[in-house]
Amino acid sequence: xxxxxxxxxDFPILSRxxxxxxxxxxxxxxxxxxxxxVIDAIAEYYQEINANIHRGVHTLSQLATDAYEVSRAKIQNxxxxxxxxxxxxxxxxxxxxxxxxxxxxxxLKQGDEILVSAMEHHSNIVPWxxxxxxxxxxxxxxPMDENGELIMAEYNKLLSxxxxxxxxxxxxxxxxxxxxxxxxxxxxxxxGAAILIDGAQAVAHLKxxxxxxxxDFYVFSGHKMCGPTGTGILYGKEDWLNKLPPYQGGGxxxxxxxxxxxxxxxxxxxxxxxxxxxxxxxxxxxxxDYLNSVGFDNIQxxxxxxxxxxxxxxxxxxxxxxxxxxxxxxxxxxxxxxGIHPYDIGAIIDKLGIAVRTGHHCAQPVxxxxxxxxxxxxxxxxxxxKEEIDLMVEAVKKAQLMLS
Amino acid sequence: MTIKEIQKEIVDEFSMFDDWxxxxxxxxxxxxxxxxxxxxxxxxxxxxxGCQSKVWLHGEQKDDKIIxxxxxxxxxxxxxxxxxxxxxxxxxAIDILNADMDFIDEIGLKEHLSxxxxxxxxxxxxxxxxxxxxxxAKK
Lengths: 404, 139
What we know:
Structural class of chain B: alpha+beta
Low-confidence stretches of chain B: none
CATH architecture of the largest domain in chain A: 3-Layer(aba) Sandwich
CATH class of the largest domain in chain A: Alpha Beta
Distance between the termini of chain A: 41 Å
Organism (chain A): Flavobacterium soyangense
Pfam families (chain A): Aminotran_5
Number of helices of chain B: 6
CATH topology of chain B: Sufe protein. Chain: A
Number of helices of chain A: 14
Mean pLDDT of chain B: 87
Radius of gyration of chain B: 14 Å
Strand order of the largest sheet of chain B: 1-2-3
Enzyme class (chain A): transferase
Shape of chain A: globular
Largest sheet of chain B: 3 strands, antiparallel
Oligomer: heterodimer
Number of strands of chain A: 17
Keywords (chain A): Pyridoxal phosphate, Transferase
Largest interface: A-B, 14 and 14 residues
Order of helices and strands of chain B: HHEEHEHHH
Strand content of chain B: 5-15%
Distance between the termini of chain B: 23 Å
Number of domains of chain A: 2
Low-confidence stretches of chain A: none
Protein name (chain A): Cysteine desulfurase
Radius of gyration of chain A: 22 Å
CATH architecture of chain B: Alpha-Beta Complex
Largest sheet of chain A: 7 strands, mixed
Strand content of chain A: 15-25%
């Protein structure tokens, strides 16, 4: 069991007020808050060891390089990657997806097929569309049902020898659905297709085991798991990462450069051109340590209680409809109130100190399926409480009263 | 009335409210009372892109003035539109182009000028000024 007061004390921002009210932060799906230990680690890096990595022989450069590589190993361990060099530092999920999609440009030909799910974030749609434009490959969409669950029968029908890559999120940002990725990975492999899992929404809630999953790529962002913004990880199986050409050219990613020919560095450096976000990369390791010290069992228990309680309380509100009612769901509740635009609710409850996301959540196709302009999304983290849910419910009721 | 005079009048009205709730309730009322835009004007061309809520804005010339009509699917946005229409509709293009927007801050709606929200308000003002610019150029 979590000592919630102790946990909350780790996050300084949670004790601030907004518009004169105590902050209730339910926008964890967009980015979650940072514990003091992470905030301190950023300052500590700049105070103690700031230097460029993998370059200098001087002590600081060595210290910074060591810290960076220690962090890589922590993340390798966290996701159970076979090798540290399969863990590529990126600026975030979007960067990771673009690097893979870009790499596939050299592997696809006209008529090849890419499968994406109907509930993807724009970041996991647009790079593939761009890839299709370049290669004349075809984008096919795995449909979902009215509960926000992907239809596996349709997925199986879409898979064929033409399928070269499948891309799907582990957890949907707009609906909270936890997708059956193990099944989808195995099915994709039956057809010899690669599969990328967008873990952006998952890594705050669970610990992915990439070897057990057997996925070819798993991408995520640091800032959604208590780490700094501008950090992320692209995990790829060694074979795949060797097969893909580098995404960007520059320093660090080369073995030898002449004007006639450049040879690329080995993994992971091949995909890490330029000076990276060194402090961010190091501190992402601190964030991973922090989450593991809290414990993912504890995190999941707290979050599933919040999901259950939040769902029950919100459904007490007349005219409220929840979008995304999958059996397997993360602590995300997307909802609307009949006759009221989500923006109006969001603007009013903000005045009452409640931070939620309103709009299409960068998943316009999902909104189009439900024929709605957007939703209000409350996404809970392990540091949230039932009392905060009560405050949100009261605020939504007040907004409803003002608006009707 | 001139744009300046109307803005002053709105600032005076808003100064009667004690808190944000009263201000929002007033804006909601304005939104509810805003005349609806004609269905045929709800075209793709008239949609202001980038707003969280959908906004349609249409302007047409009447003598030397511009008449604006607009609508939104969100009520707060509609209320803000009502305020903008009161300020800018039935004014000369050159006056619209020269108008400053300080009154938005004075009535406590500055937060709606922040980049996310108002893509809304900022784009609406931009579009109103674009109409004025286009009509002014035609002279």
